Every structure is written in structure tokens, then in C-alpha cells.
Structure to design on (100 residues):
């Protein structure tokens, strides 16, 4: 029983998606947040994951992709606009912003 628990724990730990240093510093806000108006829009970004077994892992991977895309544009903030989920695919859409 301990062996099965250990194997499942290790498998779940492997599903975590690490962020790059730049992506980890990006602030996440909702698109309808009043603070969006004080920011400069840099462009649209999206993050997508496909084929992951657990929904939380899929969302984590999609968020990591979204934040990496925003970081590559020089953003310090990303506003989440929309999330879509279908069979085995999670996609997050956002706007990369320069606010700080």
C-alpha cells in the first residue's frame, strides 16, 4: 500500500509546471479590473495545454505558457480575458500589460 501511495505522489509531483524566472514575476489580474486602464497594452497572449491527465495540471501548464508568452513581450502583468476547456484541452486567453 505504501508503495502505491509513493508512486502516485511522485507521478503527481511530476505534473507541476515550473515557471521561468520572468514568468514568475508577472502579476495576474482579471480583464475587468480597474487597474487595467492604467496599463499599456502590449498585445494578446494565449496559453494552451493538451492531453494532460488531470485538469489542475492542464490549467497549470496553460497558465505557465500564458505567462511565458507575456514575459517574452516584456509584460509585468497579464489580464485574463477568457478560459476555454474542451476534451483534454485547456486554453487561457489574456492581454499582456506593462503597468509597473
Amino acid at each position: 500500500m505504501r508503495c502505491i501511495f509513493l508512486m502516485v505522489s511522485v507521478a503527481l509531483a511530476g505534473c507541476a509546471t515550473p515557471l521561468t524566472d520572468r514568468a514568475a514575476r508577472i502579476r495576474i489580474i482579471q480583464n475587468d479590473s480597474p487597474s487595467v486602464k492604467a496599463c499599456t497594452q502590449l498585445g494578446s497572449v494565449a496559453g494552451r495545454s493538451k492531453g494532460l491527465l488531470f485538469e489542475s495540471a492542464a490549467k497549470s501548464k496553460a497558465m505557465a505558457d500564458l505567462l511565458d508568452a507575456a514575459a517574452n513581450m516584456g509584460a509585468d502583468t497579464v489580464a485574463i480575458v477568457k478560459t476555454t476547456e474542451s476534451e483534454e484541452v485547456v486554453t487561457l486567453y489574456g492581454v499582456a500589460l506593462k503597468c509597473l
Q: What stands out?
A: The first helix runs from residue 2 to 13. The chain has one domain: 17-98.
